[in-house]
Amino acid sequence: MTTLTKTSFLTAVGLGPGDPEWITVKAVRAIEQAQVVFAPRSRDGDASLALRIAEPWLRPEQRIVELALPMTRDPDLLTPAWEAAADQIAAALQPGAQGVYLLLGDPLLYGTFTYLWSELAQRHPHVQVSVVPGVTSFAAAAARAGVVLATTSERVAILPASYETDAAVLQRLLADFETVILMKVGAALPRVLDALETLGLLDAAVYAERVGMPEERIVDDLRTLRTETEPRPYLSLLIVRRSPRAPIRLPVQGAWPSTISPTSTSPTSTASPESL
Ligand SMILES: C[S@@+](CC[C@H](N)C(=O)[O-])C[C@H]1O[C@@H](n2cnc3c(N)ncnc32)[C@H](O)[C@@H]1O
Q1: Whose CA is nearest to atom 27 of ligand 1?
Q2: From the CA of 236, how far away is ligand 1's center (Å)?
Q3: Which CATH code of 2.130.10.10, 3.30.950.10, 3.40.50.300, 2.40.40.20 fits the domain covering 137-241?
């Protein structure tokens, strides 16, 4: 009985990777109905990237809570930070209140929400959680670059490039899967390019960064990336495709431009905002 009267609601909302028009109708409805909007705080002190993407649908009367989430892989720092963030969410949601937690792409693909969800389930089970899926960054990148992700019996693997340090692993996966999607590329790009060159696959890959944002960049001649000295941003990925059935890129006629102009959604930092 006590639990019922205390119940509050939190929806993890996938915003898609950048263009506000990639936010689903259901996501917009969840955002509009929320009294409290949670978003991960940006590392460089700028307004949260997720908040900037969702900005066209936020209302002035909504309470915005930016959560400081850890940018570390150290479990001794991570666990207390996730616990504190879960406590903050539970405290901000009055009984009966609805909140949304905004994330880039899809909430359940390398999203911070999975940790928060688990802490909420243990510490604050009266917060009822639901999830609205979002357009993933790789689906958007494939659409923008004209890359077929898979046909018929082809297999697709998704890897976090910044954690893959062994070229042999990449080599093995590329032997087993027609398409390999490398996410979290950023600073790992030189290493990935080395591996692709060794495997003779430089011409079989497309690089995409800040997809759906004003600064979007799609590169199909990966050799040009070799000559650049600036590290590439964390919001970057590679699609490697060795299918005999379809070329790496098919002609795609421009984009459907967004009718909504978000403020620049580009994080100024190239550091890894793992809190996305
Ligand atoms: C923490 S993961 C979040 C993934 C996200 N949940 C999704 O569904 O795509 C961050 C990684 O997603 C990819 N990413 C997210 N947004 C992107 C964008 N707009 N352009 C290119 N890559 C993006 C990058 O590989 C980045 O390193």
Answers
A1: 184
A2: 7
A3: 3.30.950.10
